[in-house]
Specification:
Blueprint (H helix, E strand, L loop, with lengths): L5 H8 L6 H10 L1 H21 L2 H54 L15 H17 L10 H4 L8
Length: 161
């Protein structure tokens, strides 16, 4: 990856470049250039303080700081979403399996504890989900495979997170 030059970063900071979107996109992707931009802003803030231009520079720097914070926040949200999605999908599948096993155990009077099968869900939450599913089941003419949506299947699973 090619890095931005110090002159390009200073022009971006001062609002003097026509390539703001390109530089902003690069800063969003390049940690090295973000650190360089931080260094440039620190030097500019120190010079502004020494020369007495603090008010003007502070307002200009606030806008850049706000943009950088927004960019960092969006990048963090994207990373968080990418890391959490597979875990949440897996959690939903584990929840559904535990609910079905709890239902089977209740119908056959089998002594079954979710923790014995490696599940981390409490029997109380599984029972709440089963009661909710059975409510829906009454509308489905006694169908044993519950006619529920993913949301309905996971109604109480969020409390287990």
């Amino acid at each position: 990856m090619n890095h931005m030059t110090e002159q390009e970063l200073i022009a971006y900071r001062d609002g003097e470049t026509r390539e703001r979107e390109r530089v902003a996109g690069h800063l969003n992707e390049c940690e090295v250039c973000r650190h360089e931009m931080d260094r440039i802003e620190a030097v500019a803030a120190k010079k502004a303080e020494e020369t007495g231009e603090v008010d003007h520079k502070a307002i200009a720097n606030f806008s850049l700081y706000q943009q950088r914070m927004h960019r960092d926040f969006q990048s963090l949200l994207k990373t968080l979403h990418a890391e959490q999605t597979p875990r949440l999908i897996d959690h939903g599948q584990e929840w559904r399996a535990a609910v079905l096993l709890q239902d089977f155990a209740q119908r056959t009077n089998t002594d079954w504890k979710p923790s014995d099968s490696g599940f981390e869900f409490s029997p109380e939450l599984l029972d709440k989900q089963l009661a909710f599913n059975k409510l829906w089941d009454r509308f489905g003419k006694n169908i044993r495979i519950f006619p529920t949506t993913k949301y309905q299947d996971e109604r109480y699973s969020k409390k287990a997170l």
